[in-house]
UniProtKB/TrEMBL annotation:
Transmembrane segments: none
Domain of life of the source: Bacteria
Keyword DNA-binding: yes
Protein's recorded name: Transcriptional regulator, LacI family
Length: 354
């Protein structure tokens, strides 16, 4: 049997009242006497009646809902961002509707269409790795939909943005590798056009330059789907391992790239850190429990979600058009663990890649 939510008409029919009387009673109108209000509210509670959000949005031109677009909820970074979003949204009386792009521009586009059709009051968005065409986002923004970008941002759309200082975080992580004796450091990055990729690559380059190490273009690999697909990471790492000279450390510039790099290196029976050091990004607490525990950059994801939501609500609730926007840049933390232990002076026998 198909579920049918109780309506004002159901309450009115059961209590032999008009729908307008029930509606006013539910809105606590002064026009309805206390006894009738009590009768209506008690019966509504018994039926588990809730106002229809679509009807409310049509009448009040507000849905009290926020749309959130991320690549993947299962990603520990984005799940923590969403927790931050919800901590503010629910406190302010807003519901949160989440759409996953799975790093696909087509799925992202469909998600945006759905959220817009649901008349969300505002949008929090982190771009997919495939998204190069911003025309739909520009159109929604031009039509007056409040949008705040976080993490992966559209740099030329004038609105609030919340990011992490990926440049400084990557610089610190790669400098740590160099100070521990690693000299041939490769980087595995997301799609080249993404804002986070540009920042993290620049931090990697600065660390090499400051320590007098050459920048080898052959040590740079891009994964256009950000590690979402294991085969993409395996192919990139196999090509890096075929380089001469072979890298002695891998810096993975996003969460999925980090964990899938670990999987590939284990598949190839390459010992970490004896034969290859590994550092990357991750907000998962499990990285501390791995063997060896991974050196990771931990981003303030929960704080990012809270700040982005606060900025979005400012846009939504402002009585006047907002013309001045800000970019908040948060600081990440490098957690040093055993996967980047100081390099020992020894002769290493590398296994043949399978």
């Amino acid at each position: 049997m198909k579920y049918s939510a109780p309506t004002i008409k159901d309450i009115a029919r059961a209590l032999n009242l008009s729908t307008s009387t029930v509606s006013r009673a539910l809105r606590d109108s002064y026009e309805i006497n206390p006894a009738t209000k009590k009768l209506v509210l008690e019966y509504a509670a018994k039926l588990n009646y809730h106002p229809n959000p679509i009807a409310l949005s049509l009448r009040e031109r507000r849905s009290l809902s926020l749309g959130v677009v991320v690549c993947e909820v299962a990603n520990s970074f984005f799940s923590q961002v969403i927790n931050g979003v919800e901590s503010i949204a629910y406190e302010k009386g807003y519901q949160v509707i989440i759409s996953q792009s799975r790093e696909s521009s087509v799925k992202e586009w469909r998600g945006l269409q759905y959220l817009a059709s649901r008349s969300v009051d505002g949008l929090l968005m982190s771009l997919s790795t495939e998204t190069t065409d911003l025309s739909m986002i520009r159109q929604l923004h031009a039509q007056g939909l409040p949008i705040v970008f976080f993490d992966r941002v559209a740099e030329d759309i004038p609105t609030h943005k919340v990011t992490v200082d990926g440049f400084q975080a990557s610089y610190k992580a790669v400098s740590h590798l160099i100070e521990n004796g690693y000299r041939r450091i490769a980087i595995l990055a997301n799609a080249a056009f993404l804002s986070i990729t540009k920042e993290r690559l620049a931090g990697y380059q600065k660390a090499l330059a400051e320590h007098g190490l050459p920048l080898r273009e052959s040590y740079i690999r891009y994964c256009d789907h950000g590690g979402m697909y294991y085969d993409e990471v395996e192919s990139a790492l196999r090509s890096l391992l075929a380089e001469t000279p072979r890298p002695d450390a891998i810096f993975a510039a996003s969460d999925k790239l980090t964990t899938n790099s670990l999987r590939v290196l284990r598949l190839l029976q390459i010992k970490i850190p004896d034969q290859m050091a590994l550092a990357g990004f991750s907000n998962s607490e499990l990285t501390e429990l791995l063997d060896p525990p991974l050196t990771v950059i931990k981003q303030p994801a929960f704080e990012m979600g809270r700040i982005a939501t606060e900025l979005l609500l400012q846009l939504i609730e402002s009585k006047r058009p907002v013309k001045e926007f800000e970019t908040r840049k948060l600081q990440a933390e490098v957690l040093v663990r055993a996967s980047t232990l100081p390099r020992k002076k020894r002769i290493v026998q590398y296994p043949t890649s399978r």
